[in-house]
Design goal:
single chain, about 270 residues, alpha/beta, Rossmann fold, seven-stranded mixed sheet, two-stranded parallel sheet, 11 strands, SAM-dependent_MTases_sf
C-alpha cells in the first residue's frame, strides 16, 4: 500500500491525526463503538508516529457517533439541506452517513486549512456532493458559498476548544445570524482540562497537547441560548454508551451528580431562530 507522509501537518492541524488514530483504531476492533472503513484506510495510508499520541480510547469514536446521529436526524427531516463541516480534518462522516442514504440530495461543505484539504484530496474519493474549501473556519467567506435554501446543519467537531472564547462565541453568533432556522453542533471540554493545557498536557513524552483556551461546562454551553443572539434553543446531547468505564459514565444517574456533570466533556446542539 502506498503511504503518505503525515508530518506535513503540525500544530493544531496535527490533532486530526490524533483523532484519526483513536477513531481508526476503534473501528478496527470487532467490538468497536463505530464502523468506519474509511478511517481504517486513512490510518493505514498515512505514515505517522501515531504512538506518540499515547494509548487510543473510545472517546473520538463515541463523539463521531453522536454527531452522526444528530446530523442524520436533521437530514431525515430536511433531505435537501446543506451540511457544513467546519475544521473537518480527516473526519469521514460523509461516507458513514452516505451509507445510510440520508445524503442523497444534500450538499456537503468540507472546510479546513489547505494542508489538511490537500491530504483529503489525495486519500479520499471525489464526490459531486462535496464542496471543498481550503480556509480557516474563522474566515467567514465560507458562508457566502453555502446554499441555505433547504436548511443548514453546521458541525464544529473538535474545533471550538482550540479557539479563544471570543472567537468561539463570535463564530456561533455569526452562524446564527447568517443561517436562521439552521442548526449547529459542537463539543466542549471542561474548564479544568482546558486550564491544564495552558500549563502543558503531555499525551506521551513526545507529544504536548496544543493549548485549548476555551472550556465550558454542559450548563454553560446550554446558557448560550440565553446569551447569544439568534440562538433559540440549546440541547445537551447525551454521549452514546461505550464499553466499560465509558458505559458507566454515560448512565443517566451519573449526570445527576453535580460535580461529575460540571467536570465532564459535553456535546451541544443549537437551534437558530
Amino acid at each position: 500500500m502506498t503511504t503518505i507522509d503525515g508530518t506535513t501537518l503540525d500544530g493544531v492541524s496535527a490533532t486530526t491525526l490524533w483523532t484519526l488514530h483513536g477513531r481508526g483504531t476503534e473501528a478496527k476492533r470487532s467490538d468497536g463503538v463505530i464502523r468506519d472503513p474509511w478511517a481504517v484506510t486513512l490510518l493505514d495510508s498515512i505514515d505517522y508516529d501515531y504512538l506518540k499520541f499515547g494509548r487510543p480510547n473510545q472517546s473520538f469514536g463515541l463523539r463521531a457517533c453522536a454527531f452522526d446521529s444528530a446530523t442524520s436526524h436533521y437530514l431525515t427531516a430536511h433531505p435537501k439541506a446543506s451540511v457544513v463541516a467546519l475544521a473537518e480534518g480527516l473526519q469521514t462522516s460523509f461516507w458513514r452517513l452516505d451509507r445510510t442514504g440520508v445524503l442523497a440530495e444534500s450538499t456537503w461543505y468540507s472546510i479546513d486549512l489547505p494542508p489538511v484539504m490537500e491530504l483529503r484530496k489525495q486519500l479520499l474519493p471525489d464526490d459531486d456532493r462535496i464542496v471543498e474549501l481550503g480556509q480557516s473556519a474563522l474566515d467567514r467567506s465560507w458562508m457566502d458559498r453555502v446554499d441555505a435554501t433547504n436548511g443548514v446543519f453546521i458541525t464544529a467537531e473538535g474545533l471550538l476548544m482550540y479557539l479563544e472564547s471570543e472567537d468561539s462565541l463570535g463564530l456561533i453568533a455569526d452562524c446564527a445570524a447568517r443561517f436562521p432556522g439552521g442548526r449547529m453542533m459542537f463539543d466542549s471540554l471542561p474548564r479544568w482540562f482546558t486550564a491544564r493545557t495552558l500549563k502543558g498536557v503531555k499525551l506521551s513524552e513526545r507529544y504536548l497537547v496544543p493549548v485549548m483556551p476555551f472550556g465550558q461546562s454542559p450548563d454553560e454551553a446550554l446558557a448560550i441560548a440565553g446569551t447569544v443572539d439568534g440562538v433559540r434553543v440549546a440541547h445537551d446531547v447525551a454521549w452514546p454508551p461505550g464499553r466499560g468505564l465509558f458505559k458507566i459514565a454515560a448512565a443517566p444517574g451519573v449526570d445527576r451528580v453535580g460535580v461529575l456533570r460540571r467536570n465532564r466533556p459535553s456535546i451541544t446542539l443549537l437551534e437558530f431562530g
